[in-house]
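#data-curation
PF: Archiving a pair of folding outputs for the training set. Convention for this channel: one message per protein, sequence first, structure tokens after, nothing in between. First:
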Amino acid sequence: MVKFFDALFGRSKPVKANLDQLFGLPQAALTLEVATTFRPTGIGSVCYRAAEGGAFATTQSDIQQLLDMSAPGPTTSTAPKVERKEDEYGFTWLVVNHDPSDSAGLVTDLHAVNTSLEGAGFGPALLCSLLHFADDQGRKLALVYLYKRGSFYPFAPQAGERRDNALELQIRGLIANDLRVEDDLSRWFPVWGAPGL
């Protein structure tokens, strides 16, 4: 009966996030390397809305310390392995740096961040995870995992808070066999505040 009323009034339950879908990202990265000039940059990030209170602060600190101990940093950079940043919209980003050739290790760390926050009861605070790419022309691209939709989409920012929609549609076609791509284009939200994009 509840399903009937949900259908009648246009309500739908959110898709439960399947964080194991993140492990499809290394294959998608390989697909992009073969089909385009986009290469992983070694940067990934998790975006969430930080909660008030000691429990959340402790969880966040524990995750950061764990990743700092385990994540191999970029070999040619002095950048920290894990950084916590806040954007102008009030969202917190946990940015993880890896060697660009280690997409699998980077994705494992992003998965650990998501599952740790979810396991500590802060799943509703999770928004998205990004894997960053760049090409030989200096264009930037991210594959975005929407936590509340359980799906991915490409985001190709340009200067002046514009985006390259044609490139995003091209990338969608290339990664469709590797990842569960979000069908509803209105859900392809711009992530202007994402560090590194």
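PF: Second:
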Amino acid sequence: MTDVALDVPLDGLVYRLVVAVDVEGYSKLHALDQARVQTRLSEVLDEAARRAGLDRSRWYRQLRGDGELAVLPADSDTAWVVARFTEHLAEALGELRRAGTPLRMRLAMHCGTLTSGRFGLVGDAPIVTCRLLDAHVVRRALAECGEDLVLVISERLFEDVVRTRFQDLDPDRFRPARFSTKNVSYSGYVCTGGPRGVSHGGSREGSRNT
């Protein structure tokens, strides 16, 4: 867990964007290779955030060995994060592949309620995000596609954000996915490749320092 405190008042419940990543095939690696993957993962996430104008030092992060679970600040531009962070992460992973050090990963996002607990985050948002990230249908999508990154978002995030087409988000690039875990049904949308349309002419450049 990072030393950035979750900015939630005592006994408070907040609505936030949660982002989680997980590296493919990590558990099959030897300890030395796992350490190298962790280094590359940290670097590629930092670089993607930097290119998207995002300040990861303000994110509350729980480290997961082969990934992390992050809560973004209240002032985050959700459409910007879904579009630009994902796009720049895919670009950075492509650069790693061309350098001969490929890294493949799943990326999950959801907006929902959460608060702080004695052993970490509590609430709907982190649970749904982790369920999406670990879903078999998402793992299969990454295994079967030719991309280094697969994005999965919750149905709520798709309806509230992707359908707006802000930041050139393209709903047609997402396909619905439904699955059950621990007798609970979940619905999400999976995107392989970039989540934006081919025409970026109307998009805004700059930073979202969140």
